[in-house]
Structures are given as C-alpha cells and as structure tokens.
Design goal:
By secondary structure, the chain is α+β, with helices and mostly antiparallel strands. The protein folds into two domains: 3-100, Orthogonal Bundle (Peroxidase, domain 1); 105-178, no CATH class. It has helices at residues 3-19, 23-39, 41-48, 54-65, 71-82, 89-103, 119-133, 164-178, and strands at residues 107-113, 137-143, 151-155, 158-161.
C-alpha cells in the first residue's frame, strides 16, 4: 500500500473518530493495536488472509479487541479488515496517529518503556521532548520489558535512547576498549 492509500484510509478513520467525539481515545487505542500487529506476524497474517472469510477475520477483530477497546475502535479496525486491508493496518494506523497529532499542531513521540508511565511521567517526558525537539508532542507509549528500564523516544527521525539496555551496552563497549 502506498502512502496515498494509507493516508486516504487514515483520513476516513479519523473522520469517523472525530464525528464520534473520540479522536484522542481511538487514536490511543489504534496506536496500541498497530504495535500489537507489528509484533505479531500471526495476527497480522490472519487479518490479512484473503482465504479466510471476511466474517471470520472480523470475528478475530471482535475476539481480540472487543473488551479492550471502544466499539468505535473495533468498528474501524473491522471496516479496514473487511475492505481487505488487514495487512496494511499498521501503516494506516501510523498515518492516522500522525494526522491526529498534526491536527493539534503536534508531532507523535513514540515511547518504549519497560513499564507503563504514569500521567505525571508522561507530562514531564512531553515537556522534556518539547525542549529537545522544539515542538509539542503527543506521547504514545509501548511497554517493552526488553529495554530493562528507562525509555527510548522517537520523534520523527530523532531517536533518544535512554534505556538501561543501551547504557549497559555502552558500558560493556567501554570496558572492552580498556581491556
């Protein structure tokens, strides 16, 4: 799927979420869905499998998201899956999240953290990233225990790696140079 198609789907999804008055919550939920799809080849393949009947793929959406997200989010994901674009959901969702942030004059800050962040931590992190990047940011957090602690922030092309894993790697490299 090219960027124009992804943008068209993202615009349609954004319009529905906006009409329902749920842009922020739907955007947050779709971000989490997009990350889950990027991390699960099996789920992404099932939702994009043209050999599975559309009703079966939509049932998978309902089973996976039904009690974890709003009805609007389930409906939007189900609509994209029914249109045969299940494999493209991560790209479409990324475009929607960026469009939602841009509509508010912000950039998306994708944060990977070993634990979920409190509202206070998110606020302080957003302020620090605004200072570092010069623009307001929408914080989108993905919990990733493999980073062991700290955070990795990506705003546009800028990556700030403050993870414990990264710092341990730097220490390991420094000790190799000494030995």
């Amino acid at each position: 799927m090219d960027g124009t198609q992804a943008d068209a789907y993202a615009t349609a999804l954004y319009s529905v979420a906006n009409a329902e008055g749920q842009v922020d919550s739907v955007s947050d939920q779709l971000f989490a869905v997009g990350r889950a799809l990027k991390d699960s080849d099996e789920l992404r393949d099932a939702l994009g499998d043209p050999h599975l009947p559309v009703t079966r793929r939509q049932q998978i959406v309902e089973d996976v998201l039904g009690d974890k997200t709003s009805d609007v989010t389930v409906g939007l994901v189900s609509m994209v899956v029914a249109a045969g674009r299940g494999r493209d959901l991560p790209v479409i969702i990324d475009a929607l999240v960026k469009a939602s942030a841009a509509d508010q004059g912000r950039q998306v800050a994708e944060i990977r953290s070993a634990i979920d962040l409190s509202e206070d931590q998110r606020t302080r992190l957003a302020a620090a990233l605004k200072t570092a990047t010069g623009s307001d940011v929408d914080i989108r957090v993905t919990v990733d225990p493999s980073i062991e602690g700290g955070v990795i922030a990506r705003v546009g092309d800028t990556v700030i790696d403050g993870s414990v894993r990264h710092r341990l790697g730097q220490l390991r490299d420094a000790l190799r140079d000494v030995a």
